Amino acid sequence: xxxxxxxxxxxxxxxxxxxxxxxxxxxxxxxxxxxxxxxxxxxxxxxxxxxxxxxxxxxxxxxxxxxxxxxxxxxxxxxxxxxxxxxxxxxxxxxxxxxxxxxxxxxxxxxxxxxxxxxxxxxxxxxxxxxxxxxxxxxxxxxxxxxxxxxxxxxxxxxxxxxxxxxxxxxxxxxxxxxxxxxxxxxxxxxxxxxxxxxxxxxxxxxxxxxxxxxxxxxxxxxxxxxxxxxxxxxxxxxxxxxxxxxxxxxxxxxxxxxxxxxxxxxxxxxxxxxxxxxxxxxx
Length: 284
Ligand SMILES: Cc1cc2nc3c(=O)[nH]c(=O)nc-3n(C[C@H](O)[C@H](O)[C@H](O)COP(=O)(O)OP(=O)(O)OC[C@H]3O[C@@H](n4cnc5c(N)ncnc54)[C@H](O)[C@@H]3O)c2cc1C
Ligand code: FES
Prior knowledge:
- By secondary structure, this protein is of the alpha/beta class.
- The protein has 2 domains: 6-90 and 263-282, Elongation Factor Tu (Ef-tu), domain 3, CATH 2.40.30; 93-209, Rossmann fold, CATH 3.40.50.
- The chain is built from 9 helices and 18 strands.
- Strands 12-11-10-9-13-14-17 form a 7-stranded mixed beta sheet, sandwiched between helices.
- The chain is globular.
- Flavin-adenine dinucleotide (FAD) binds at residues 35, 45, 47-50, 62-64, 66-70, 109, 112, 213-216, 242, 258, 262, 265, 269.
- Residues 35, 45, 47-50, 62-64, 66-70, 109, 112, 213-216, 242, 258, 262, 265, 269 line the site of flavin-adenine dinucleotide.
């Protein structure tokens, strides 16, 4: 088996894919909250993706096929080889040893980050409450993993096709209002979902983390592309994060920067659709 061979690849929904990759060094050192940067073919972009789980020498990723590189990744199969998988990168999640009640909220493809975090919090002896949400039942991922790990699990769908009808913020609000002891909350999902949902915990003064996903290039703190403003200070999400105090994040700055390369991303996608030739190697 090659160094970065895809061990397993399948679709979780129409646009979200799960992949297990042989990446021994990354798997051995990876902790909850960290990510890797994948360079599928040596020619296109490198994409940062959260490490969603580990198993021996393999890592799991789950990604939404949104643009040139993730759509290329989605075409790959077990046996194909990736050019490079760098990691683990970023600061691991701030998980306390025992006695805390933590809530882990995942929305959309952000649910990909929740099983590894829930497992780490549980293994450290904490009481873990999971809340996972999707637009509809077909888009819901990793429910089985979360059900097995969490002490309590709430499932929401926007359209009510499964679980509680509405957004993941609703069960979070109820838990906060119930007066139960809640020590920490993680919220992982699209930028707008994290911004709005973190407002639920603010009045209660509950320590709340979000995992930010600005555009990253080198992942080493050198290029500056992943600059975010947290608590009025400039941080680099790749080395200072990607998890930050939700109540200190400058969301407008983050979202403006995320939209910076939309024209180039559209151009790249159009070029791929016209000329694409997959350069990934097949392991014989
Ligand atoms: C720390 C981190 C962890 C992430 N984890 C996941 C994950 O587990 N699953 C998942 O589906 N997505 C994750 N993302 C987002 C993922 O990296 C982007 O969807 C991907 O880079 C898009 O690349 P593309 O070429 O397919 O699409 P493009 O057309 O290039 O971009 C589509 C959109 O993706 C974002 N994006 C583009 N390039 C980058 C880049 N280099 N870095 C970050 N965002 C970019 C932009 O918002 C852009 O508008 C994560 C991002 C970060 C920073
Ligand atoms: S990705 Fe270059 S500084 Fe973070």
